[in-house]
Amino acid sequence: MKQGWKISDFENCLEKVVYTNKIQKKDFKECGNYPIISQEQDFINGYWDNKNDLFKTTKPVVIFGDHTQVKKYVDFDFVLGADGVKIFQTKNHIVPKYFYYFLQNAEIGNLGYARHYRLLKEIPVSYPKSLSEQQQIVSILDQCFSAIDQAKANAEQNLKNAKELFESYLQGVFENGKWETKMLGDVVDKIMTGPFGSMLHQSDYVEKGIPVVNPQNIVAGQIIPLQKTMINKETFNRLKKYALKLDDIVIARRGEMGRCAVVRNENVDWLCGTGNFVIRVNPKKMNSDFLNVNLSSKSVKQKLEKSSIGATMSNLNQTILSDLSISIPPLKEQKTIIRQLDTLQAETQKLEIAYKKRIAGLEELRKNILQRAFAGELTENL
Fold this sequence. Notes:
This protein is an alpha+beta fold. It is about 35% helix and about 20% strand. It folds into three domains: about 5-130, Adenine-n6-DNA-methyltransferase TaqI, Chain A, domain 2 (Alpha-Beta Complex); about 130-175 and about 335-380, Helix Hairpins (Orthogonal Bundle), CATH 1.10.287; about 180-330, DNA methylase specificity domains (Adenine-n6-DNA-methyltransferase TaqI, Chain A, domain 2).
């Protein structure tokens, strides 16, 4: 340990405050005189008006979410929201924000939604005996993290811009194209609903076998197999009329509208589930990838939402889908548009990977700086 530093038991560094007047989340107000602090990630979770519930901060405190492990540094009066929150007031030999940063560096096990304070209090606290050195560490960390937060915010904005660039181009393709408008049922060979519940029961599912494609299997435009939603060969043979073919499109008939994907080689002879439609494309009239992009576009999603039925969850039926009006360019232009979209998407994905790597690197830098701070390395030359 660095000379001039000390190690103390956790609870010897603080005065633990038990605060019993807690506001339930259902009662939070969107605006009010006093901010509500809880153990959720958002810093301020709502507002309150009753001054009697106010926690007066004579000096800054540290909030610890006993369930979530979220830590917050609070230097203003507040109301405590919900249960499972510890308020730490440090003793005079510990600078409050130093203690907050120390907690940021502390690693404890994850007990799910259990209370974690019993693990946290077992961690010994290392600190300089000098309050001025503690404050120097805080000042250095403030400056470093301010720069990191700004760099991270820039990277996150760039990531958002990259995603919006693709979405903007995609939206422009369908809004600006002066194409022929037709009903979906007129430009595809078949629209077929997956087997109804009476044909495929929960008891038919096995953990390993032939995947059944339901809405939850469609993720970011891809068809993902899920364990426990598969069937054996015997069940497949009974329902093989619902088997997927290459370049089919599967589209959810309930829940999120426009959730669809093209059947690729690896998905052939999987089974369309109860919650999806199969759209069998006529390759002489329609490119499957173009139709898939069209069906998941903002304008078509809005049409499907407006036409859907169901009070609690949006649902489509075969008539609604067949009568859906869509704008369609000539087949050659469809293929050109898809090539352009593929090129742009590839470039967008490169940018996304780079920005995500940058964000991960900044978080790693934050951890490294914290580790150095509490090893006494940030002030060793001061």
